[in-house]
Design goal:
Number of domains of chain B: 1
Order of helices and strands of chain B: HHHEHEEHEHHHHHHEEEH
Strand order of the largest sheet of chain B: 2-4-3-6-7
Oligomer: heterodimer
Order of helices and strands of chain A: HHHHH
Structural class of chain B: alpha/beta
Distance between the termini of chain B: 48 Å
Helix content of chain A: over 70%
Distance between the termini of chain A: 25 Å
CATH architecture of chain B: 3-Layer(aba) Sandwich
Strand content of chain B: 5-15%
Number of domains of chain A: 1
Number of helices of chain A: 5
Structural class of chain A: mainly alpha
Radius of gyration of chain A: 18 Å
Largest sheet of chain B: 5 strands, mixed
Shape of chain B: elongated
Number of helices of chain B: 12
CATH topology of chain B: Glutaredoxin
Strand content of chain A: under 5%
Largest sheet of chain A: none
Radius of gyration of chain B: 22 Å
CATH class of chain B: Alpha Beta
Number of strands of chain B: 7
Chain lengths: ~160, ~270
C-alpha cells in the first residue's frame, strides 16, 4: 500500500469516526438520560449563535441540520460509495469549521467550541485540532482524486 | 455488492446499534461508568483561568484568579459536585431577594454574572429583560441572579455588595439596571455608591450603606462564587439551565430569539 492510499484510509476512518461521534454527541449532549432531540438541537443553536457569524434563520437551519448531516456524511465515508463526492463535502465542511474557529479565536471570543456538545472552551488547542482534521480531510480528498486517475491495483494488468 | 461494501454496511449497522444502546441507557453498567468518570474532579487544579467578556463575548487576553480562591475552594469542596447533565438535588442557597418568578416554574435559570463585565451588561439588556417579561412574569421560568465577581474587575465586588444590599430592601431591579446601564461611568471612576444613590431615596441609601459597611454580604457573594466553581463556571456571563432533572450550562451571551427557542423546547416537555 502506498502512502497516498494509506492517508486516504486513515482520513476516511478517522473523519468518519469524528463526524459520526460529533453528530451523535450533539443529538444526545452526552447526557443520561438523553434529553429530547428538540432540546438538544435548540441548545446546539445557542452554541452556533455564539460564533456570531450567521443570522438567526441561518443559526436555526445549521443547528437543525448539521448533526444529522455529520452522521450521514460519516456513514457515507465509511461505506465508500461515491467516495470522492462525500470526501469533497466533508473537506469543505471541515474547512468551514476551521475558518469559524480561527476567526473566533482571533477575535478573542470567549465561547465554547460546541464541536462535541460539551462545554469545551475554544482555545488554541481547538484551533490546532481543527487544523489537523482539515489538513487530513484535504489530503484525503486530493489523494482520492489522484488515485482515481490510476488503474486500481487489484485490477487485472492490461493485455499487451 | 462487493464484499467490502457488505463489510462496511455491517460495521455501520453495528455502530448504530451500539449508539442506540448507549443513548437509551440499556447498559446500566456503561451508563454508571460514564457518570462516575466525569464526576470527581478537583476544583483548584482543573479550574481554567477566569475571564470576562469585553464586548459581546469579546474578551481581553487577561486572566484572573477568583476573588477569594482559598475560601471558595474550601466551601466548594464541601458540596458534592453535580455530574454534567444531572441537576443537583435542590437549588442551593437561593437568596429570595435575588430570585425572580415562581419557585415551581418548570425551568430554572441561574445567571452567574459580574456587574463590571460588558458581556453581562449585554446579556442583561438585550436578553434577560425580555426573559423576565415573557417567561419569568408568566411563571414559566424561575430566574436566579448569582454573583460571580472576577478579581480582574476592580469594582465588581463592591457593585455586587451594593446590589445585594439593595435587593434586601426590595430594590434589586432599579439598582441592577442602574449598575449595568452606567457601567462605563462607574468602572472608570469607581463611584458605585453614587450610581446606586441616584436611583434610591436618601433613607434607602442610608440602609444600603449600613448593610455594605456591615460586612455581612461577602459571605453570600462567596457562596454564589463557590457554587459557580462547582458548575465549572470559568467566564461571565454563564447561565445554568435546570429542567426535568437535567442541567444545561451555557457560557456567553445569548440572543433572545435563539434562547426563546431553547426555553420553548424545555417547556414543551412539561
Amino acid at each position: 500500500m502506498n502512502l497516498r492510499r494509506a492517508i486516504i484510509w486513515i482520513g476516511r476512518l478517522a473523519l468518519a469516526g469524528i463526524f459520526i461521534y460529533a453528530g451523535y454527541a450533539k443529538l444526545t449532549m452526552g447526557m443520561h438520560p438523553r434529553p429530547p432531540i428538540g432540546v438538544a438541537l435548540s441548545f446546539f443553536a445557542l452554541q452556533v449563535d455564539s460564533y456570531q457569524i450567521l443570522p438567526t434563520w441561518g443559526v436555526k437551519f445549521v443547528a437543525k441540520t448539521l448533526p444529522f448531516a455529520e452522521i450521514g456524511l460519516g456513514l457515507l465515508l465509511l461505506i465508500g460509495w461515491r467516495f470522492r463526492i462525500w470526501a469533497t463535502i466533508v473537506t469543505l465542511i471541515m474547512l468551514g469549521f476551521f475558518a469559524a474557529v480561527v476567526r473566533s479565536y482571533a477575535l478573542g471570543l470567549q465561547i465554547n467550541c460546541g464541536c462535541f456538545a460539551t462545554p469545551e472552551p475554544l482555545t488554541i488547542k481547538t484551533v490546532f485540532r481543527d487544523g489537523i482534521f482539515s489538513a487530513l480531510a484535504l489530503l484525503m480528498t486530493i489523494f482520492a482524486f489522484m488515485e482515481a486517475r490510476k488503474p486500481h491495483p487489484w485490477s487485472a494488468p492490461e493485455k499487451a | 455488492m462487493s464484499r467490502r461494501a457488505i463489510l462496511a454496511v455491517v460495521a455501520v449497522l453495528a455502530l448504530i446499534a451500539l449508539g442506540l444502546q448507549m443513548s437509551r441507557g440499556l447498559s446500566p453498567a456503561l451508563a454508571a461508568r460514564f457518570n462516575v468518570d466525569r464526576a470527581p474532579q478537583s476544583l483548584a487544579s482543573e479550574q481554567p483561568a477566569l475571564t470576562s467578556s469585553n464586548d459581546r463575548n469579546v474578551a481581553p487576553a487577561v486572566s484572573a484568579s477568583p476573588a477569594a480562591p482559598e475560601k471558595t475552594a474550601e466551601s466548594g469542596s464541601a458540596v458534592p459536585r453535580p455530574t454534567p447533565g444531572q441537576a443537583p438535588a435542590g437549588l442551593a442557597d437561593v437568596d429570595p431577594h435575588k430570585a425572580f418568578g415562581s419557585k415551581n416554574a418548570p425551568v430554572t435559570m441561574e445567571v452567574f454574572s459580574d456587574f463590571q463585565c460588558p458581556a453581562c451588561k449585554t446579556l442583561y439588556i438585550t436578553t434577560n429583560r425580555q426573559v423576565m417579561d415573557n417567561y419569568v412574569s408568566t411563571g414559566k421560568v424561575y430566574l436566579i441572579h448569582r454573583d460571580f465577581p472576577l478579581a480582574m474587575h476592580a469594582h465588581s465586588r463592591v457593585a455586587a455588595r451594593y446590589a445585594r444590599a439593595a435587593a434586601q430592601l426590595g430594590k434589586n431591579e432599579p439598582v441592577e439596571q442602574a449598575l449595568f446601564q452606567n457601567q462605563e461611568k462607574w468602572e472608570k471612576t469607581g463611584d458605585v455608591d453614587g450610581t446606586v444613590a441616584a436611583v434610591l431615596s436618601p433613607a434607602e441609601m442610608a440602609k444600603v450603606r449600613a448593610l455594605v459597611k456591615g460586612g455581612t454580604l461577602d459571605a453570600a457573594i462567596d457562596k454564589d462564587f463557590a457554587l459557580g466553581q462547582m458548575y465549572r463556571v470559568n467566564q461571565t456571563p454563564t447561565t445554568v439551565f435546570h429542567s426535568a432533572n437535567q442541567t444545561y450550562p451555557y457560557a456567553g451571551v445569548m440572543s433572545y430569539d435563539i434562547l426563546k427557542q431553547f426555553l420553548d423546547q424545555l417547556l414543551s416537555g412539561h
